Amino acid sequence: MSFTELEDFVFEKVAKTRLPGVSAAAIRDGEVVWAKGFGYRNLADGLAATPHTLYSVGSVTKSFTSVAILQLVEQGKLSLDTPVGQIIPFEIQPCGETVKVWHLLSHTSGIPALAYAESVIRGATGAGESWLPVASGSDMLTFLREAGDWALNKPGERWFYLNEGYVLLSMIIEKLSGMRYQEYVTEKILKPLGMTRSFFAKQDVDSDPDAAVPYIVADDGERKPSAYAYGLSGDGGLISNVLDLAKYVTMYLGWGTGGGGQVLARSSVEEMETPRISTPNKGGPFGDYLYALGLGTYKNFMGQILVGHSGSVGVATAYIGFIPEKNVGIALLANASGYALSQLGMAGLAVLLGEKPESLPFVRRENALSELEGTYETYKGTMKAQVKKMGDFLAFETRTRYDTEVVPLIPDTVEGNVRTFHTLSGGNRIDVEFRVQEGEIGLIYERYYLKRTGKI
Fold first, then answer.
1. Does the pLDDT at position 1 exceed 70?
2. Residue 131 pLDDT grade (very low, low, confident, very high; cuts 50, 70, 90)
3. How many whole angstroms separate alpha carbon 289 and alpha carbon 291?
4. Phi and psi of 158, rounded to 5°?
5. Which residues have a Cβ under 8 Å from the Cβ of 2 and sit 6 or more positions away?
6. Nearest-5° angle of CA 312, CA 318, CA 319?
7. Which residues sit opposite 387 in a β-bridge?
8. Could you tell me where the beta strands, DSSP code E, fall in 287-383?
9. Which of 1.20.1510.10, 2.60.200.30, 3.40.1030.10, 2.40.128.210 would CATH assign to domain 367-454?
10. How high is the pLDDT of residue 438?
11. Rg of the chain's alpha carbons, rounded to an integer?
12. Residues in contact with 314: Cβ distance below 8 Å, sequence separation at least 6, in sequence order
């Protein structure tokens, strides 16, 4: 199996989004069949990213927290239906109902995201102006004291991604195990799996010879060295590398077996992978994104069930994904935010299934939108405009000496020779049409017809 096309795909996306570095590893039948670094782990010193490079895994940490909780369930120390308030002093009852452990694991407590982690991360990186002194479980309970007033649904009814809930789960692990969260995960998960270069402490990362510098990629493309928010715990505090994460993914593919032993019972792995709730991510090419316990699933990824989780702390991003039926998986880490690593991961999984990255619907969509980018002009250049890709949309931009107008173009059909979009003006729908012919692209916008005269 050749990974050349995947390497080309990753290289292109890293270059286009100005990511400093990315590391990746692919797994088949319990073995790493491909591992590679792209770009830099340290720009100032000119050091290359490698498969051994350390990065924050962000919210991929949540799956480790879920493993820890399921281990404690297997030991009989709690059940998934145990009320949270029976273990730690948590008194919030959304809509008068009790929050249970599985509600926190599945982000269905009824409490919407309170943006604690976003505030902490922005404070650590200097990107935010506010300061939130949440450094412990006790601080979190203080922060949450009035959160019940923000509850919108009964527990179990609706998915609200709640970082705060995973801090509470960390407290539960500490209370029932008698160990610090970081110590428990290290002793009960990382060491048994042989994940010897996965850490929580800053001093461990700083002393490692192959740790990535985290970066902020500014709007102008400048990459600014930054820092991690080391105060995060079970919601996003782990630092790891793709070869260690490959061992972790292999544990799931082995139904709880890894490192020569049983880390989790098969029934617990199945529990973690069984969807509990739909998320707002609906109707995509792979079906709805469903959330289980610390892991999410797509039920129709190229005809297969895809299980995984992504992570981001702004200055680092992560993704793990695996297809149990085919016994394949992928792990990716980056030292900034740029091209979504979940999509790079899906490209890698496509290759593991014998397909090309270009066979994925979102890749075809990206290519179709990118093809339309450029400078457009009306007859004899009387008016000029630029069309730029803006995420899943296009932006139609016109400038004069005195002002700039940017109009979002929402895609309706993006493939074929006639590609249709629409926008809104004064509450009215305006249809927009691109005509793609060999050697020429034309644009009908309201009363104007423009031809592309060059790329941006």
1. no
2. confident
3. 7
4. -145, 150
5. none
6. 125
7. 374, 396
8. 289-291, 296-301, 304-312, 317-323, 328-334, 374-377
9. 2.40.128.210
10. 85
11. 24
12. 121, 122, 125, 127, 216, 226, 337
